[in-house]
Amino acid sequence: MAKPASPRLTFVRSDDETCIVVITSDAAGLVPVDITGRTYVMSIALFPGETPVTSATGTVVGATGTVTFSFPEAKTVLLTGSLYWYDVVETASGAESTIILAQLTVLTGVTA
């Protein structure tokens, strides 16, 4: 199995956040993989291996290799700390693979 990607993300607590992942087959990220029939879940926890604080199931556009995760305010308000870990797990033909494992920074907005 390949090593999971590790792109850092930043969310703003209490904002609606969207994360888009494009699954590609080349290092340059130009050739999308048809992911029709696969499922994806993004989970956020204080540390890897701990119970997630929140999670979202991705919306898949198979032919373009695109997965969109939506975290509405009701989910981002649960992120009361400033540093978390997140992963994206793919399920294909019953097999689960962690395709992303990285840190998530959570900021607090200025405007009330």
Shape: globular
- Strand % is over 45%
Tell me how many strands there are: 8
Strand order of the largest sheet: 1-8-7-3-4
Order of helices and strands: EEEEEEHEE
Average pLDDT level = 94
Q: How is the main sheet built?
A: 5 strands, mixed
Instruction: Report the total helices.
Output: 1
Classify the secondary structure makeup into a structural class. Answer: mainly beta
Rg over alpha carbons: 14 Å
N- to C-terminal distance: 45 Å
Low-confidence stretches: none
Name the helicity range.
under 10%
What does this structure look like?
This protein is mainly beta and 112 residues long. 4% of the residues lie in helices and 47% in strands. It contains 1 helix and 8 strands, in the order ββββββαββ. The strands form 2 sheets. Strands 1-8-7-3-4 form a 5-stranded mixed beta sheet, with no helix packed on it. The protein has a 3-stranded antiparallel beta sheet with strand order 2-6-5. A hairpin with a 4-residue loop joins strand 5 and strand 6. The termini are far apart. The relative contact order is 0.33.
